[in-house]
Design goal:
Phosphatase 2c, domain 1; 2 domains; about 55% helix; about 15% strand
């Protein structure tokens, strides 16, 4: 017994090392709580299963727990489970080549285990499917070698590390059968070679995780810079017009968004307002929103002509948006005559809350989205703003936000919310709308970018609404 324990000492050491590594990998993957790290779970399962099988198949198992009838079943089941975990590790680490073949190997291992384990239990014949699983392992090894040693264009460094690990493992396997080297405590045995191999696999997996983290940190830093740049193009101040209260709210769904609003200063109490929504969100939409600011600035000479402004913007973006498009609402506000001219391009209708009747209506105009059609035509609407009247410009992120039952908040709820905010300041109205929509979703974040611009006329003899 002492000789057997000495001979299996290396296997015991490797088993302990593998199980320790497995605990660390699984703990790290679970703490990250991300599917991006599931390959660490597979690597941890592979190391743990191989380590347990190694320990259960050594003389140390009998020494510690005695002869147990169920130990053969444990070993047999592990023979089916270890290849599944190993093939899953390889599939998620290097499985981008010959994808169908690599996935087929994993599927065959799983099917073998699903069929063989119940069969062995029912017939009381452990290792009954050993020939089948050994054949599959040989096929997997050939597939592994094809993936590693056939030249490829990607992961050159990672493949080199795995090749070295596989080469060392093969040398240990050859020594196990041909006995080139005899070492005390059986330190030249196959399990030690496997430790090199799994070590190489774990190293490559961890290296990829670390590289992903470094890349993620760099990306977050770049997104932070992009957000600061984008926020710098959003107006910090609204036009100062006696008798007009202006409130705005801008909330991108991610670090940067595709919503945009800006003012064209026509002076003497007159100004233009554009509220736009670039399809999608994130960096591509944000870049187009930045371009839109420059394009709008070139329309200062036409700021009193909403249809002309939208037509010119369409000309500037036509043929440049690939699969994206822009919706927009443009208004020209004259606070000397209290007239407002409006035009929209595939955008939600501007809302008017009447200060006298305390009702909400849509100011309807017609016009296609921007950037998709060469020939476009936009209609304009003109209305007078009385004391207490409010104009609301918004993007569809407000009304299309959904609750957990996938029901949109909708225009009707927006109208009801507007009626409840009568008498409030424009900023408070915008905030209450956003809060009501957020309450509907049950979350503080919206799935789409949200923008609101609220304009309320009040008596010049009175203070602005609270």
């Amino acid at each position: 017994m002492t000789a057997a324990l000495r001979e299996d000492f290396a296997a015991l050491v490797v088993s302990v090392v593998l199980c320790t590594v497995a605990v660390g990998l699984v703990a790290f993957a679970l703490l990250r709580r991300s599917t991006r790290y599931r390959e660490l779970l597979y690597a941890g399962a592979f190391a743990a299963l191989y380590g347990v099988r190694l320990a259960a198949d050594s003389a140390w198992a009998e020494f510690l727990i005695g002869e147990q009838w169920w130990l053969n079943y444990v070993l047999s089941f592990l023979n089916y489970l270890v290849p599944i975990a190993g093939s899953m590790v390889f599939l998620h680490t290097f499985g981008e080549r010959w994808t169908v073949l690599n996935r087929s190997i994993v599927t065959l291992f799983i099917l073998c285990a699903v069929v063989a384990i119940p069969y062995e239990i029912a017939t009381a014949q452990p290792f009954a499917g050993g020939v089948v699983v050994d054949s599959l392992v040989m096929i997997f090894i050939v597939t592994l070698l094809l993936n590693l040693f056939v030249p490829g264009k990607s992961d050159a460094d990672d493949r080199r590390i795995i090749r070295w690990g596989a080469t060392v493992f093969c040398l240990f396997v050859l020594n196990e059968h041909l006995h080139f080297v005899r070492a005390p405590w059986n330190l030249a045995a196959e399990p030690l070679g496997f430790l090199f191999f799994i070590g190489a696999m774990v190293f490559v997996t961890m290296r990829r995780v670390v590289n992903d983290q470094v890349h993620l940190v760099a990306m977050k830093s770049e997104l932070g810079t992009a957000r600061r740049i984008q926020m710098s193009i959003i107006p910090r101040h609204v036009p100062a017009s006696p008798g007009l209260d202006i409130g705005t709210l801008y909330q991108p769904a991610s670090d940067v968004g595709g919503d945009f609003y800006d003012f064209l200063d026509g002076q003497d109490g007159k100004f233009g307002l554009l509220v736009a929504d670039v399809s999608g969100h994130g960096v591509p939409a944000a870049l187009l929103a930045s371009m839109l600011k420059i394009a709008l600035a070139n329309q200062l000479a036409h700021c009193s002509e909403p249809a002309t402004v939208l037509t010119n913007l369409n000309m500037q973006f036509f043929g440049k948006l690939d699969r994206q498009f822009i919706t927009a609402a443009y208004a020209y506000i004259d606070t000397t005559s209290w007239q407002a001219k409006l035009a929209t391009a595939g955008h939600p209708s501007v809302l008017l809350r009447d200060g006298t009747t305390e009702s909400v209506s849509e100011v309807r105009t017609e016009g296609p989205i921007l950037g998709r059609f060469r020939s476009v035509a936009f209609t304009e609407a003109t209305l007078s703003l009385g004391v207490g009247d409010t104009l609301i410009f918004y993007t569809d992120g407000v009304t299309e936000t959904r609750n957990r039952a996938e029901e949109p908040w909708g225009e009707e709820r927006l109208h009801h919310t507007l009626l409840r905010t009568t008498g409030q300041s424009a900023a408070a109205t915008a905030a209450d709308i956003a809060r009501a929509a957020a309450d509907w979703t049950g979350s503080e974040r919206f799935e789409d970018d949200v923008t609101l611009v609220v304009l309320t006329r009040f008596s010049e003899d009175a203070a602005p609404p609270p």
